[in-house]
Design goal:
Length: about 180
């Protein structure tokens, strides 16, 4: 499963779009060039640190979920407390299916209803990237990356799972994340 999300911070809004498609139908190119070198955890930590929020932030967003059988959308908010705590609230069309969760790092502390985060958030690194936050890899992950002017690319792999990031700084900073399982 490959998923990608773009965050456009300068406009002050976060738009959440989660699309779940079969692997055969989705053909995303990797963000990381094949020629990228192995990097240390300390180097990756330096690339992640500028994305870690300071203080408290509030993001309001609209979301759209699609699969082969149906689609649904809604709105929500995420309250983020530095460095890695998030309160997530979302509702479907006309206020249906209210969902709330507290996430610390890469795990949920509480969720209402219990299976809501599993349905809405297929990957914690992807969820954090939706709000402009890159996550540090787990210990023992294979790390590759490169930095070229305003663009920094890095990836980490644990087993068959890979998370890739592309961070661009400048007039229109962006963070793109891609998760492959």
């Amino acid at each position: 499963m490959r998923q990608r999300f773009w965050l456009d911070r300068p406009w002050g809004a976060v738009y959440l779009a989660a699309m779940v498609l079969g692997c055969g139908r989705l053909n995303l190119e990797p963000l990381m060039p094949v020629a990228a070198d192995t990097v240390s955890r300390e180097v990756v930590q330096g690339w992640v640190e500028p994305t870690v929020p300071e203080g408290h932030l509030l993001h309001r967003f609209r979301w759209l979920y699609r699969d082969d059988r149906s689609s649904a959308g809604g709105r929500g908010s995420a309250r983020i407390a530095s460095p890695d705590t998030l309160r997530f609230d979302a509702v479907g069309p006309f206020g249906s299916s209210p969902t709330a969760a507290v996430v610390i790092g890469d795990s949920t502390q509480w969720v209402d209803p219990e299976d809501a985060v599993d349905k809405l958030v297929p990957s914690f690194p992807l969820m954090w990237a939706m709000f402009g936050v890159a996550r540090l890899p787990a210990d023992g992950a294979r790390l590759r990356g490169l930095s070229d002017g305003p663009v920094t690319l890095w990836e980490y792999a644990v087993g068959p799972d890979t998370v890739e990031y592309r961070r661009t700084v400048g007039e229109r900073p962006t963070l793109v994340a891609q998760v492959r399982r």
